[in-house]
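Sequence only, no structure available. Ideas?
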Amino acid sequence: MSNGDSGRRVIDGRFRLEARLGGGGMGTVWRATDLALHRSVAVKEVRPPDIDLAEYDPRGARLLRERVLREARALARIDHPNVVTIHHIVDGGEGTYPWIVMELVGGGSLADRLERGPTDPVETARLGREVLAALRAAHDAGIQHRDVKPANVLLRPDGRPVLTDFGIAAIRESTALTTTGSIIGTPDYMAPERIAGDDGGPASDLWSLAMMLYAAVEGEHPLRRGTTMATLAAVLYEDVPPPRQAGPLADVLMRVLVKDPPARPDADTLDRLLAAVAETGAVPEAHEAPSEPTSYRLAPAQPQDAVPGPSGPTTARPVRSARRGRGTTVTLSAVGTVLVGVLAWTLLPDGDGSGSSASGTPTNSATASPPADTSSDKNDKNDKNGGSDGSDKSEQADQSEQADDTDLLTPAGIRSALKALEKETGRDRYGTITVYPDYLSAQVMVEGSRTSYDQYTYYVGRGVQEGTIKAQLAGGAQPMTLDGFDWDRLPALFAEAEKKLNVGKAASRYLLVKSPNDVFDRPAEIMLYLTDDHARSGYLQADARGRVTRVTPAD
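Reply:
I predicted one. C-alpha coordinates follow.
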Protein backbone atom coordinates (compact mmCIF):
# COMPACT_ATOMS: atom_id res chain seq x y z
CA MET A 1 0.00 0.00 0.00
CA SER A 2 1.18 3.54 -0.77
CA ASN A 3 -0.19 7.02 -1.33
CA GLY A 4 -0.52 8.72 -4.68
CA ASP A 5 0.14 12.38 -5.39
CA SER A 6 -3.38 13.26 -4.39
CA GLY A 7 -2.96 11.66 -1.00
CA ARG A 8 -5.53 9.01 -1.82
CA ARG A 9 -4.77 5.45 -0.85
CA VAL A 10 -3.06 3.31 -3.48
CA ILE A 11 -3.21 -0.49 -3.22
CA ASP A 12 -0.23 -2.52 -4.41
CA GLY A 13 1.28 0.63 -5.93
CA ARG A 14 -1.28 0.45 -8.73
CA PHE A 15 -4.93 0.79 -7.68
CA ARG A 16 -5.87 4.23 -6.37
CA LEU A 17 -9.05 4.22 -4.30
CA GLU A 18 -11.40 6.95 -5.48
CA ALA A 19 -14.72 6.46 -3.69
CA ARG A 20 -16.44 3.95 -1.44
CA LEU A 21 -19.17 2.11 -3.34
CA GLY A 22 -20.55 0.00 -0.50
CA GLY A 23 -19.73 -2.47 2.18
CA GLY A 24 -21.02 -5.22 4.37
CA GLY A 25 -20.03 -7.94 6.78
CA MET A 26 -17.21 -9.23 4.60
CA GLY A 27 -15.52 -6.00 3.53
CA THR A 28 -15.72 -2.77 1.59
CA VAL A 29 -15.97 -2.15 -2.16
CA TRP A 30 -14.25 0.89 -3.71
CA ARG A 31 -14.25 2.50 -7.10
CA ALA A 32 -10.60 2.76 -8.03
CA THR A 33 -8.33 3.74 -10.87
CA ASP A 34 -5.89 1.24 -12.32
CA LEU A 35 -2.87 3.51 -12.68
CA ALA A 36 -1.12 1.07 -15.03
CA LEU A 37 -3.97 0.63 -17.53
CA HIS A 38 -5.75 3.95 -16.92
CA ARG A 39 -9.17 2.41 -16.40
CA SER A 40 -11.76 2.37 -13.63
CA VAL A 41 -12.13 -0.83 -11.62
CA ALA A 42 -13.87 -2.06 -8.49
CA VAL A 43 -11.66 -3.12 -5.61
CA LYS A 44 -12.98 -5.20 -2.75
CA GLU A 45 -11.13 -5.28 0.54
CA VAL A 46 -12.02 -8.69 1.98
CA ARG A 47 -11.95 -8.87 5.74
CA PRO A 48 -13.90 -10.69 8.46
CA PRO A 49 -16.46 -8.78 10.52
CA ASP A 50 -14.37 -9.33 13.63
CA ILE A 51 -11.12 -7.37 13.28
CA ASP A 52 -9.60 -9.33 16.17
CA LEU A 53 -10.01 -12.70 14.46
CA ALA A 54 -6.27 -13.04 13.81
CA GLU A 55 -5.52 -12.56 17.52
CA TYR A 56 -7.88 -15.09 19.09
CA ASP A 57 -8.10 -17.48 16.13
CA PRO A 58 -4.97 -17.22 13.96
CA ARG A 59 -5.71 -20.55 12.30
CA GLY A 60 -9.19 -19.35 11.36
CA ALA A 61 -7.77 -16.13 9.95
CA ARG A 62 -5.24 -18.08 7.89
CA LEU A 63 -7.90 -20.43 6.53
CA LEU A 64 -10.08 -17.46 5.69
CA ARG A 65 -7.34 -15.83 3.65
CA GLU A 66 -6.50 -19.09 1.87
CA ARG A 67 -10.10 -19.76 0.99
CA VAL A 68 -10.67 -16.26 -0.38
CA LEU A 69 -7.61 -16.63 -2.59
CA ARG A 70 -8.59 -20.10 -3.76
CA GLU A 71 -12.14 -19.17 -4.70
CA ALA A 72 -11.14 -15.84 -6.28
CA ARG A 73 -8.64 -17.65 -8.50
CA ALA A 74 -11.27 -20.21 -9.47
CA LEU A 75 -13.72 -17.44 -10.29
CA ALA A 76 -11.09 -15.63 -12.36
CA ARG A 77 -11.06 -18.63 -14.70
CA ILE A 78 -14.79 -18.28 -15.47
CA ASP A 79 -15.40 -16.36 -18.66
CA HIS A 80 -19.10 -15.59 -18.76
CA PRO A 81 -20.96 -12.38 -19.63
CA ASN A 82 -23.13 -12.64 -16.52
CA VAL A 83 -20.27 -13.26 -14.11
CA VAL A 84 -18.23 -10.36 -12.83
CA THR A 85 -14.70 -10.41 -14.25
CA ILE A 86 -11.79 -10.73 -11.82
CA HIS A 87 -8.79 -8.71 -13.02
CA HIS A 88 -6.27 -9.07 -10.24
CA ILE A 89 -5.72 -10.31 -6.67
CA VAL A 90 -3.55 -8.41 -4.21
CA ASP A 91 -2.14 -10.76 -1.59
CA GLY A 92 0.01 -9.24 1.12
CA GLY A 93 0.96 -12.58 2.62
CA GLU A 94 0.42 -14.06 6.07
CA GLY A 95 -1.35 -11.80 8.52
CA THR A 96 -3.18 -9.82 5.81
CA TYR A 97 -6.45 -10.13 3.96
CA PRO A 98 -6.67 -10.04 0.15
CA TRP A 99 -7.90 -7.29 -2.12
CA ILE A 100 -9.82 -8.44 -5.19
CA VAL A 101 -9.79 -6.21 -8.27
CA MET A 102 -12.86 -6.61 -10.48
CA GLU A 103 -14.53 -5.01 -13.43
CA LEU A 104 -16.58 -1.94 -12.54
CA VAL A 105 -20.23 -2.45 -13.45
CA GLY A 106 -21.82 0.95 -13.86
CA GLY A 107 -25.57 0.46 -13.82
CA GLY A 108 -26.21 0.04 -10.10
CA SER A 109 -27.60 -3.11 -8.50
CA LEU A 110 -30.89 -4.93 -8.76
CA ALA A 111 -31.57 -3.72 -5.22
CA ASP A 112 -31.30 -0.15 -6.52
CA ARG A 113 -33.65 -1.01 -9.37
CA LEU A 114 -36.25 -2.52 -7.02
CA GLU A 115 -36.35 0.65 -4.95
CA ARG A 116 -38.27 2.13 -7.91
CA GLY A 117 -40.86 -0.64 -7.79
CA PRO A 118 -41.35 -4.29 -8.75
CA THR A 119 -40.46 -5.78 -12.11
CA ASP A 120 -43.02 -7.36 -14.43
CA PRO A 121 -43.11 -11.17 -14.81
CA VAL A 122 -41.56 -11.31 -18.29
CA GLU A 123 -38.76 -8.91 -17.36
CA THR A 124 -38.18 -10.89 -14.17
CA ALA A 125 -38.01 -14.20 -16.04
CA ARG A 126 -35.47 -12.79 -18.50
CA LEU A 127 -33.31 -11.47 -15.68
CA GLY A 128 -33.66 -14.80 -13.87
CA ARG A 129 -32.40 -16.73 -16.88
CA GLU A 130 -29.26 -14.62 -17.09
CA VAL A 131 -28.51 -14.91 -13.38
CA LEU A 132 -29.16 -18.63 -13.62
CA ALA A 133 -26.66 -18.82 -16.48
CA ALA A 134 -24.07 -17.22 -14.22
CA LEU A 135 -24.83 -19.73 -11.47
CA ARG A 136 -24.57 -22.65 -13.85
CA ALA A 137 -21.16 -21.47 -15.05
CA ALA A 138 -19.98 -21.21 -11.45
CA HIS A 139 -21.46 -24.57 -10.47
CA ASP A 140 -19.70 -26.18 -13.42
CA ALA A 141 -16.46 -24.76 -12.00
CA GLY A 142 -17.24 -26.20 -8.56
CA ILE A 143 -18.20 -22.85 -7.00
CA GLN A 144 -21.39 -22.22 -5.07
CA HIS A 145 -22.47 -18.65 -4.59
CA ARG A 146 -24.30 -18.93 -1.24
CA ASP A 147 -25.43 -15.31 -1.26
CA VAL A 148 -27.67 -14.66 -4.27
CA LYS A 149 -29.65 -11.52 -3.49
CA PRO A 150 -30.56 -8.25 -5.22
CA ALA A 151 -27.56 -6.37 -3.84
CA ASN A 152 -25.21 -8.93 -5.45
CA VAL A 153 -26.76 -8.62 -8.90
CA LEU A 154 -25.23 -5.64 -10.69
CA LEU A 155 -26.72 -4.18 -13.86
CA ARG A 156 -24.78 -3.03 -16.87
CA PRO A 157 -25.96 0.18 -18.54
CA ASP A 158 -27.89 -1.96 -21.08
CA GLY A 159 -29.69 -3.74 -18.22
CA ARG A 160 -27.82 -7.03 -18.44
CA PRO A 161 -27.34 -8.55 -14.96
CA VAL A 162 -23.92 -9.48 -13.63
CA LEU A 163 -23.62 -11.69 -10.57
CA THR A 164 -20.90 -10.62 -8.17
CA ASP A 165 -19.45 -11.69 -4.82
CA PHE A 166 -18.97 -15.28 -5.95
CA GLY A 167 -16.92 -17.23 -3.48
CA ILE A 168 -16.85 -14.37 -1.01
CA ALA A 169 -20.01 -15.73 0.58
CA ALA A 170 -18.41 -19.17 0.79
CA ILE A 171 -15.93 -17.97 3.36
CA ARG A 172 -18.77 -17.26 5.73
CA GLU A 173 -18.58 -20.82 6.97
CA SER A 174 -15.23 -19.92 8.48
CA THR A 175 -16.42 -16.77 10.19
CA ALA A 176 -20.20 -16.77 10.50
CA LEU A 177 -20.01 -17.85 14.12
CA THR A 178 -17.38 -16.12 16.20
CA THR A 179 -16.77 -15.64 19.88
CA THR A 180 -18.51 -12.29 19.61
CA GLY A 181 -21.72 -14.04 18.54
CA SER A 182 -21.99 -12.24 15.22
CA ILE A 183 -23.55 -13.49 12.02
CA ILE A 184 -22.79 -12.09 8.62
CA GLY A 185 -25.54 -10.81 6.42
CA THR A 186 -29.26 -11.49 6.59
CA PRO A 187 -31.12 -14.77 6.15
CA ASP A 188 -33.70 -13.38 3.71
CA TYR A 189 -32.45 -15.27 0.66
CA MET A 190 -30.71 -18.22 2.32
CA ALA A 191 -32.17 -21.64 1.63
CA PRO A 192 -33.65 -23.32 4.71
CA GLU A 193 -31.16 -26.17 4.62
CA ARG A 194 -28.28 -23.69 4.83
CA ILE A 195 -29.87 -21.91 7.78
CA ALA A 196 -30.26 -25.31 9.41
CA GLY A 197 -26.53 -25.94 9.13
CA ASP A 198 -26.23 -27.99 5.94
CA ASP A 199 -23.74 -26.83 3.32
CA GLY A 200 -26.40 -27.22 0.67
CA GLY A 201 -25.45 -27.39 -2.98
CA PRO A 202 -26.53 -25.99 -6.34
CA ALA A 203 -30.18 -26.49 -5.32
CA SER A 204 -29.63 -24.04 -2.46
CA ASP A 205 -28.45 -21.37 -4.88
CA LEU A 206 -31.57 -22.02 -6.97
CA TRP A 207 -33.77 -21.42 -3.91
CA SER A 208 -32.00 -18.09 -3.37
CA LEU A 209 -32.45 -17.16 -7.03
CA ALA A 210 -36.16 -17.98 -6.94
CA MET A 211 -36.64 -16.04 -3.72
CA MET A 212 -34.90 -13.03 -5.27
CA LEU A 213 -37.17 -13.23 -8.34
CA TYR A 214 -40.21 -13.55 -6.07
CA ALA A 215 -39.21 -10.37 -4.22
CA ALA A 216 -38.55 -8.60 -7.54
CA VAL A 217 -41.91 -9.36 -9.12
CA GLU A 218 -43.99 -8.98 -5.95
CA GLY A 219 -42.23 -5.92 -4.58
CA GLU A 220 -41.88 -7.57 -1.17
CA HIS A 221 -40.17 -10.52 0.44
CA PRO A 222 -42.68 -13.17 1.56
CA LEU A 223 -40.78 -14.36 4.65
CA ARG A 224 -39.04 -11.21 5.84
CA ARG A 225 -40.01 -10.30 9.37
CA GLY A 226 -39.24 -7.52 11.82
CA THR A 227 -36.06 -9.11 13.17
CA THR A 228 -33.38 -11.41 11.82
CA MET A 229 -34.40 -14.03 14.39
CA ALA A 230 -38.00 -13.96 13.21
CA THR A 231 -36.94 -14.15 9.55
CA LEU A 232 -34.79 -17.19 10.30
CA ALA A 233 -37.75 -18.86 11.94
CA ALA A 234 -40.02 -18.02 9.02
CA VAL A 235 -37.61 -19.50 6.46
CA LEU A 236 -37.22 -22.66 8.55
CA TYR A 237 -40.83 -23.20 9.57
CA GLU A 238 -43.14 -21.62 7.04
CA ASP A 239 -44.11 -22.34 3.47
CA VAL A 240 -43.84 -19.58 0.91
CA PRO A 241 -47.28 -18.13 0.04
CA PRO A 242 -48.14 -18.18 -3.66
CA PRO A 243 -47.23 -14.84 -5.29
CA ARG A 244 -50.09 -12.58 -6.35
CA GLN A 245 -48.49 -10.47 -9.11
CA ALA A 246 -46.21 -12.99 -10.79
CA GLY A 247 -48.69 -14.18 -13.42
CA PRO A 248 -47.18 -17.10 -15.40
CA LEU A 249 -44.00 -16.85 -13.35
CA ALA A 250 -45.85 -17.83 -10.15
CA ASP A 251 -45.86 -21.56 -10.85
CA VAL A 252 -42.16 -21.52 -11.72
CA LEU A 253 -41.27 -19.84 -8.44
CA MET A 254 -43.42 -22.16 -6.36
CA ARG A 255 -41.77 -25.22 -7.94
CA VAL A 256 -38.41 -24.04 -6.66
CA LEU A 257 -39.40 -22.62 -3.28
CA VAL A 258 -39.99 -25.95 -1.55
CA LYS A 259 -38.15 -27.01 1.59
CA ASP A 260 -36.72 -30.24 0.25
CA PRO A 261 -33.73 -29.62 -2.09
CA PRO A 262 -34.19 -32.81 -4.18
CA ALA A 263 -37.79 -31.77 -4.90
CA ARG A 264 -36.67 -28.58 -6.64
CA PRO A 265 -36.20 -28.59 -10.42
CA ASP A 266 -32.62 -28.76 -11.60
CA ALA A 267 -30.96 -25.88 -13.42
CA ASP A 268 -31.82 -27.22 -16.91
CA THR A 269 -35.50 -27.55 -16.05
CA LEU A 270 -35.60 -24.17 -14.35
CA ASP A 271 -34.00 -22.52 -17.38
CA ARG A 272 -36.61 -24.09 -19.66
CA LEU A 273 -39.43 -22.87 -17.42
CA LEU A 274 -38.04 -19.36 -17.23
CA ALA A 275 -37.50 -19.32 -20.98
CA ALA A 276 -41.17 -20.17 -21.57
CA VAL A 277 -42.26 -17.20 -19.46
CA ALA A 278 -39.65 -14.86 -20.96
CA GLU A 279 -40.44 -15.77 -24.57
CA THR A 280 -44.17 -16.52 -24.58
CA GLY A 281 -45.47 -15.21 -21.27
CA ALA A 282 -46.71 -18.68 -20.29
CA VAL A 283 -45.45 -21.83 -18.60
CA PRO A 284 -45.47 -25.00 -20.75
CA GLU A 285 -48.56 -27.02 -19.92
CA ALA A 286 -46.73 -30.29 -20.37
CA HIS A 287 -44.87 -29.95 -17.12
CA GLU A 288 -46.43 -31.53 -14.10
CA ALA A 289 -46.58 -29.83 -10.76
CA PRO A 290 -43.62 -30.57 -8.51
CA SER A 291 -43.84 -33.74 -6.47
CA GLU A 292 -44.43 -33.68 -2.76
CA PRO A 293 -41.12 -33.20 -0.94
CA THR A 294 -39.58 -36.35 0.35
CA SER A 295 -38.29 -36.66 3.89
CA TYR A 296 -35.31 -34.37 4.37
CA ARG A 297 -33.28 -34.91 7.50
CA LEU A 298 -30.10 -33.03 8.30
CA ALA A 299 -27.42 -34.45 10.55
CA PRO A 300 -28.74 -34.89 14.10
CA ALA A 301 -27.80 -32.24 16.61
CA GLN A 302 -25.17 -33.06 19.18
CA PRO A 303 -26.28 -32.15 22.70
CA GLN A 304 -22.93 -30.71 23.73
CA ASP A 305 -22.87 -28.34 20.76
CA ALA A 306 -26.48 -27.38 20.27
CA VAL A 307 -28.34 -24.42 21.66
CA PRO A 308 -32.03 -23.58 21.59
CA GLY A 309 -33.63 -22.96 18.24
CA PRO A 310 -36.19 -20.23 17.61
CA SER A 311 -39.84 -20.51 18.42
CA GLY A 312 -40.76 -18.74 15.25
CA PRO A 313 -42.07 -15.22 15.91
CA THR A 314 -43.53 -13.69 12.75
CA THR A 315 -45.60 -10.68 11.94
CA ALA A 316 -48.59 -11.86 10.01
CA ARG A 317 -51.50 -14.26 10.25
CA PRO A 318 -50.94 -17.77 8.86
CA VAL A 319 -52.90 -18.85 5.80
CA ARG A 320 -53.18 -22.23 4.20
CA SER A 321 -50.79 -23.06 1.38
CA ALA A 322 -51.52 -25.71 -1.23
CA ARG A 323 -47.88 -26.70 -1.43
CA ARG A 324 -47.21 -28.10 1.98
CA GLY A 325 -44.87 -31.08 1.93
CA ARG A 326 -46.32 -33.27 4.64
CA GLY A 327 -43.35 -35.59 4.63
CA THR A 328 -40.77 -32.89 5.20
CA THR A 329 -38.64 -33.41 8.29
CA VAL A 330 -35.74 -31.17 9.27
CA THR A 331 -33.53 -31.97 12.22
CA LEU A 332 -31.15 -29.12 13.00
CA SER A 333 -27.51 -30.04 12.86
CA ALA A 334 -25.17 -28.74 15.52
CA VAL A 335 -24.10 -25.94 13.21
CA GLY A 336 -27.69 -24.97 12.52
CA THR A 337 -28.73 -24.89 16.15
CA VAL A 338 -25.61 -22.95 17.08
CA LEU A 339 -26.41 -20.41 14.35
CA VAL A 340 -29.95 -19.97 15.60
CA GLY A 341 -28.79 -19.92 19.20
CA VAL A 342 -26.22 -17.23 18.52
CA LEU A 343 -28.94 -15.15 16.91
CA ALA A 344 -31.08 -15.65 19.98
CA TRP A 345 -28.15 -14.60 22.16
CA THR A 346 -27.42 -11.55 20.03
CA LEU A 347 -30.83 -10.38 18.93
CA LEU A 348 -33.22 -11.16 21.75
CA PRO A 349 -33.34 -8.63 24.58
CA ASP A 350 -30.99 -10.55 26.88
CA GLY A 351 -28.20 -9.60 24.49
CA ASP A 352 -27.01 -6.16 23.55
CA GLY A 353 -27.87 -6.25 19.84
CA SER A 354 -31.09 -4.90 18.53
CA GLY A 355 -30.99 -7.20 15.54
CA SER A 356 -33.54 -5.19 13.61
CA SER A 357 -33.71 -5.69 9.90
CA ALA A 358 -35.88 -4.25 7.18
CA SER A 359 -39.40 -5.39 7.80
CA GLY A 360 -42.26 -6.46 5.68
CA THR A 361 -45.75 -7.56 6.55
CA PRO A 362 -46.71 -9.95 3.78
CA THR A 363 -49.16 -12.72 4.39
CA ASN A 364 -47.61 -15.54 6.33
CA SER A 365 -47.95 -19.04 4.97
CA ALA A 366 -47.49 -21.27 7.99
CA THR A 367 -49.83 -24.16 7.34
CA ALA A 368 -51.54 -26.75 9.42
CA SER A 369 -53.66 -29.85 9.07
CA PRO A 370 -57.43 -29.44 8.95
CA PRO A 371 -59.22 -29.36 12.30
CA ALA A 372 -59.34 -32.76 13.89
CA ASP A 373 -62.71 -34.47 14.22
CA THR A 374 -63.37 -34.46 17.93
CA SER A 375 -66.59 -36.45 17.80
CA SER A 376 -64.91 -39.61 19.04
CA ASP A 377 -63.34 -37.72 21.93
CA LYS A 378 -66.74 -36.39 22.91
CA ASN A 379 -68.32 -39.83 22.68
CA ASP A 380 -65.56 -41.29 24.84
CA LYS A 381 -66.09 -38.57 27.42
CA ASN A 382 -69.86 -39.09 27.41
CA ASP A 383 -69.43 -42.83 27.78
CA LYS A 384 -67.23 -42.31 30.84
CA ASN A 385 -69.87 -40.10 32.39
CA GLY A 386 -72.63 -42.60 31.74
CA GLY A 387 -74.53 -40.60 29.17
CA SER A 388 -74.45 -38.37 26.15
CA ASP A 389 -76.56 -35.41 27.20
CA GLY A 390 -73.59 -32.99 27.09
CA SER A 391 -74.27 -31.68 30.58
CA ASP A 392 -70.85 -32.48 32.00
CA LYS A 393 -69.45 -29.33 33.60
CA SER A 394 -65.87 -29.94 32.51
CA GLU A 395 -67.01 -30.27 28.91
CA GLN A 396 -68.95 -27.03 29.23
CA ALA A 397 -65.80 -25.39 30.54
CA ASP A 398 -63.86 -26.74 27.57
CA GLN A 399 -66.47 -25.33 25.19
CA SER A 400 -66.39 -21.98 26.98
CA GLU A 401 -62.61 -21.74 26.59
CA GLN A 402 -62.86 -22.76 22.93
CA ALA A 403 -65.37 -19.98 22.41
CA ASP A 404 -62.75 -17.51 23.63
CA ASP A 405 -60.03 -19.11 21.51
CA THR A 406 -59.90 -16.34 18.92
CA ASP A 407 -56.95 -14.44 20.41
CA LEU A 408 -54.23 -16.50 22.03
CA LEU A 409 -52.78 -13.39 23.67
CA THR A 410 -55.56 -13.54 26.26
CA PRO A 411 -55.74 -15.65 29.44
CA ALA A 412 -58.42 -17.94 28.01
CA GLY A 413 -56.71 -18.14 24.62
CA ILE A 414 -53.28 -19.16 25.85
CA ARG A 415 -54.77 -21.64 28.32
CA SER A 416 -56.80 -23.33 25.59
CA ALA A 417 -53.77 -23.59 23.30
CA LEU A 418 -51.56 -25.06 26.01
CA LYS A 419 -54.29 -27.47 27.01
CA ALA A 420 -54.59 -28.65 23.42
CA LEU A 421 -50.81 -29.13 23.20
CA GLU A 422 -50.71 -31.19 26.37
CA LYS A 423 -53.65 -33.29 25.22
CA GLU A 424 -52.01 -33.94 21.84
CA THR A 425 -48.49 -34.67 23.11
CA GLY A 426 -49.10 -36.01 26.59
CA ARG A 427 -46.28 -33.74 27.79
CA ASP A 428 -46.22 -30.68 30.02
CA ARG A 429 -42.59 -29.52 29.98
CA TYR A 430 -41.37 -26.85 27.60
CA GLY A 431 -38.47 -24.80 26.35
CA THR A 432 -39.27 -21.46 24.74
CA ILE A 433 -42.89 -20.76 23.75
CA THR A 434 -43.87 -18.07 21.23
CA VAL A 435 -47.44 -16.80 21.11
CA TYR A 436 -49.15 -14.74 18.40
CA PRO A 437 -52.86 -13.86 18.32
CA ASP A 438 -53.67 -16.83 16.08
CA TYR A 439 -51.01 -19.42 16.76
CA LEU A 440 -48.66 -20.67 19.46
CA SER A 441 -45.35 -22.41 18.77
CA ALA A 442 -43.63 -24.39 21.52
CA GLN A 443 -40.52 -26.41 22.15
CA VAL A 444 -42.17 -29.46 23.76
CA MET A 445 -39.66 -31.50 25.73
CA VAL A 446 -39.19 -35.16 24.86
CA GLU A 447 -40.35 -37.41 27.65
CA GLY A 448 -37.49 -38.31 29.98
CA SER A 449 -35.03 -35.80 28.49
CA ARG A 450 -33.88 -32.45 29.85
CA THR A 451 -32.45 -31.31 26.52
CA SER A 452 -34.32 -32.83 23.55
CA TYR A 453 -37.45 -31.16 22.25
CA ASP A 454 -39.91 -31.37 19.36
CA GLN A 455 -41.49 -28.28 17.87
CA TYR A 456 -45.30 -28.13 17.92
CA THR A 457 -47.65 -25.39 16.78
CA TYR A 458 -51.26 -24.78 17.78
CA TYR A 459 -53.39 -22.84 15.26
CA VAL A 460 -56.67 -21.17 16.12
CA GLY A 461 -59.50 -23.18 14.60
CA ARG A 462 -57.21 -25.90 13.26
CA GLY A 463 -55.62 -27.48 16.27
CA VAL A 464 -52.13 -28.87 16.86
CA GLN A 465 -49.54 -29.64 14.21
CA GLU A 466 -46.18 -31.29 14.84
CA GLY A 467 -43.42 -29.15 13.35
CA THR A 468 -40.30 -30.08 11.41
CA ILE A 469 -37.72 -29.05 14.00
CA LYS A 470 -36.20 -31.51 16.46
CA ALA A 471 -33.29 -30.11 18.44
CA GLN A 472 -31.66 -29.67 21.83
CA LEU A 473 -31.81 -27.14 24.62
CA ALA A 474 -28.35 -25.91 25.51
CA GLY A 475 -26.56 -22.76 26.59
CA GLY A 476 -27.93 -23.17 30.09
CA ALA A 477 -31.61 -23.35 29.11
CA GLN A 478 -33.68 -25.58 31.38
CA PRO A 479 -37.07 -27.21 30.73
CA MET A 480 -40.03 -25.73 32.58
CA THR A 481 -43.58 -26.47 33.55
CA LEU A 482 -46.16 -23.70 33.41
CA ASP A 483 -47.91 -24.14 36.75
CA GLY A 484 -46.45 -20.92 38.19
CA PHE A 485 -47.44 -18.59 35.35
CA ASP A 486 -50.21 -16.09 36.00
CA TRP A 487 -51.86 -15.75 32.60
CA ASP A 488 -54.55 -13.50 34.06
CA ARG A 489 -51.94 -10.72 34.11
CA LEU A 490 -51.67 -10.63 30.31
CA PRO A 491 -54.28 -7.90 29.66
CA ALA A 492 -52.65 -5.56 32.18
CA LEU A 493 -49.17 -6.31 30.78
CA PHE A 494 -50.23 -5.52 27.22
CA ALA A 495 -51.95 -2.35 28.40
CA GLU A 496 -48.74 -1.25 30.10
CA ALA A 497 -46.72 -2.17 27.00
CA GLU A 498 -48.96 -0.03 24.82
CA LYS A 499 -48.45 2.93 27.14
CA LYS A 500 -44.69 2.64 27.63
CA LEU A 501 -43.10 1.07 24.54
CA ASN A 502 -43.39 4.15 22.29
CA VAL A 503 -44.65 2.08 19.38
CA GLY A 504 -47.89 3.92 18.68
CA LYS A 505 -50.33 1.74 16.78
CA ALA A 506 -48.84 -1.74 16.83
CA ALA A 507 -48.89 -3.68 13.57
CA SER A 508 -47.97 -6.89 15.36
CA ARG A 509 -47.72 -8.15 18.89
CA TYR A 510 -46.48 -11.39 20.34
CA LEU A 511 -44.96 -12.77 23.50
CA LEU A 512 -42.15 -15.12 24.36
CA VAL A 513 -42.35 -17.41 27.36
CA LYS A 514 -38.71 -18.15 28.18
CA SER A 515 -37.59 -21.08 30.28
CA PRO A 516 -35.09 -20.66 33.15
CA ASN A 517 -31.39 -20.47 32.36
CA ASP A 518 -28.84 -21.70 34.92
CA VAL A 519 -25.85 -20.18 33.09
CA PHE A 520 -27.25 -16.65 33.34
CA ASP A 521 -29.05 -17.38 36.61
CA ARG A 522 -32.28 -16.22 35.00
CA PRO A 523 -35.71 -17.45 36.07
CA ALA A 524 -38.57 -18.18 33.73
CA GLU A 525 -40.02 -14.98 32.29
CA ILE A 526 -42.49 -13.46 29.87
CA MET A 527 -41.48 -10.97 27.18
CA LEU A 528 -44.12 -8.95 25.30
CA TYR A 529 -43.21 -7.36 21.96
CA LEU A 530 -44.98 -4.63 20.02
CA THR A 531 -43.87 -3.66 16.49
CA ASP A 532 -45.21 -0.97 14.16
CA ASP A 533 -45.38 -0.93 10.36
CA HIS A 534 -41.82 0.41 10.13
CA ALA A 535 -40.26 -2.39 12.23
CA ARG A 536 -39.86 -0.16 15.27
CA SER A 537 -40.14 -2.56 18.15
CA GLY A 538 -40.16 -2.37 21.92
CA TYR A 539 -40.54 -5.01 24.58
CA LEU A 540 -41.69 -5.41 28.14
CA GLN A 541 -40.23 -8.08 30.39
CA ALA A 542 -42.03 -9.66 33.37
CA ASP A 543 -41.58 -12.59 35.71
CA ALA A 544 -43.86 -15.63 35.72
CA ARG A 545 -46.24 -13.91 38.15
CA GLY A 546 -46.64 -10.95 35.82
CA ARG A 547 -44.49 -8.44 37.70
CA VAL A 548 -42.73 -6.09 35.26
CA THR A 549 -38.94 -6.28 35.51
CA ARG A 550 -37.83 -4.27 32.47
CA VAL A 551 -39.28 -1.89 29.88
CA THR A 552 -37.38 -1.21 26.65
CA PRO A 553 -39.20 1.30 24.42
CA ALA A 554 -38.72 1.57 20.67
CA ASP A 555 -36.06 4.03 19.56
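The longest strand covers residues 15-24.
Hope that gets you unstuck.
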